[in-house]
Amino acid sequence: MKLVGYYRVPPVRGIFFSPAQEERLLLLGCEEVFSDRCLNSGVVRPGLTRALDALEDGGAVATPSLHALAGDMAGLMDVVLKLEARGLHLIVQQPEIDTRADPGFFEACRALAGFNGERPMVRAAEAALVARGAAGGLKGLKAEAPAQTDDAPPSAED
């Protein structure tokens, strides 16, 4: 099984790679290490593409952290689901994740991605319910008066 490393370099002027991250991945046993420089203008990851292309089914991508793999949750889900779809594994040093030993991380990410994908549908259904309610779709429902507590100011009837 081939093991390659990958990390993203933050968008800091003059910084194009991280010797410390590269060394950590080489000490982990990576045959090759790939990196991408984060850009403020968008996400372009030729290094990640090259890392995935260097692997065959059953291979693994190692990364120092989840943040070194992606900059946000959507980006992380995208990468993780690509790895799983290609039959590859993920090894993260911090927090310790190794899908070769426990594929549960892939299952959790699939569930989160499904939840995230359902969000627009749920929001559309909620908007339709609100629109129907505003257009009189909630006729016949009586709003209950809030229960009065001892702290509430006395009503005009008191």
How far the N terminus sits from the C terminus, by CA atoms, comes to: 81 Å
Strand order of the largest sheet: 2-1-3-4-5
How much of the residues is beta strand, in percent?
15-25%
Determine the number of helices (DSSP H or I, runs of at least 4 residues).
5
- Gyration radius, to the nearest Å? 25 Å
Q: Strand pairing plus helix content: what structural class? A: alpha/beta
The biggest beta sheet reads:
5 strands, mixed
SSE run: EHEHEHHEEH
Overall mean pLDDT: 82
Q: Count the strands?
A: 5
Using the alpha-carbon principal axes, give the shape: globular
Helix coverage percent: 40-55%
The parts where pLDDT drops under 50 for at least 5 residues are none
Record the SSE blueprint.
Layout: E1 3-9, H1 19-28, E2 32-37, H2 46-53, E3 60-65, H3 66-69, H4 73-85, E4 89-94, E5 97-98, H5 104-137
Descriptive overview:
This protein has 158 residues and is an alpha/beta fold. 44% of the residues lie in helices and 17% in strands. A five-stranded mixed beta sheet has the order 2-1-3-4-5, with helices on both faces. α4 crosses α5. The radius of gyration is 25 Å and the shape is globular. The protein starts with a strand and ends in a 21-residue tail after the last helix.
Q: What is the structure about, briefly put?
A:
This protein is an alpha/beta fold. Helix content is 44%, strand content 17%.
